[in-house]
Every structure is written in C-alpha cells, then in structure tokens.
Amino acid sequence: MKWFVPAFAAFLLAAATASPALSDPYTIDASHTHVGFKVNHLGFSDTYGTFNNVAGTFDLDQDNPEKSSVDIDIKTASIDTNHEKRDEHLRGPDFFDVGKYPDITFKSTKVERTGDKTAKVTGNLTMLGVTKPVTLDVTLLAAGPYPMDKSVTAAGFNATATIKRSDFGMTAYVPMISDEVDITISTEARKQ
Prior knowledge:
Lipocalin; mainly beta; single chain
C-alpha cells in the first residue's frame, strides 16, 4: 500500500488517499465524525462524553507526508455526556469555561508513519488558552472512492490519545475525577 500516507487531526484526525496528486485538500465530514473522551469517576466508574460540533481540514502530501497538515476546531459548548446537569457544569468555569474558551483546536506539526495503516500524528492542542504537544495513534480504516458516490474520494480513520487535563489548567476535582483523559476519534473526510 505504497499510496498510503497518514495524516491526522482531534483532538484529533488523519487522512490518506489513492489519488496520484501531490497535495490533496480534505474536509472533515462532521456527520460521520465522533470525538469522544473517557474519565474515571471516584474509581468506581468511567464517564464517557462526546463533542458534537467538530470541523476541520487537512492537506495531504503523498510524496512528502511530513509536509501534510491538519487543522481541527471543536466547539466546547457541544460537550455531551448524556446528562444535562453534568454538561452544564462541564461548560462552566470549573471545566471548559465555554464563554471564555469556545474552542479546542489541534494543528499538526509532524506525521510519522509507523506501519502500512498506522501513524503517529503530533500537533499542538490548545484548550483553555493553553497549548501543549499531543501525539495521536492513528489507524487507516479505508481510503478511496466513496461507496455511496464513486465520484467522491474519502478516507476514514480511528485515532487515540491520552492527555492530562491538568496540563491545560483543568484541575477541578482531581483525583476524584481522573486527571488522565482517554480520547477516541473516528472520522471520515472528503477530498475537496
């Protein structure tokens, strides 16, 4: 699969294509993208959540994957843990402070291919006004003509990472609510 070149964005995303073009722009398909997280609650249970408003683009350079780039934006107010009272608290100043920090962004800085369908994508994650490097482990699911419309080129990926929320200044209730946050991303993107 020499045509496979991974790139990502998250947060938290990547891309690949069979196209012979040197650089291909893609747009994230928000309706087929899931950005999720998991934290531990008091050692008794895991709490899961998602962000429902995710947008982004990436440019894929197949000949020079290190020149590929990803730019993702997540609206913090779109947090959803399936519990409205908790979501309201998460939107407040103890956690995401969405009035002051409406976005989480990820901008890639490095793509390192680790296998035929895997890569490490490093970038700058900005949350609560703090920017830190984060590396995502990315796996290609599929790339090529979209089955529902063969005129569209698409790519699908899964990605994972673990961050410490305290690194971004989010320290409320640590350690009762775990400092470590597991991030999972599944995305489809369409070639522009």
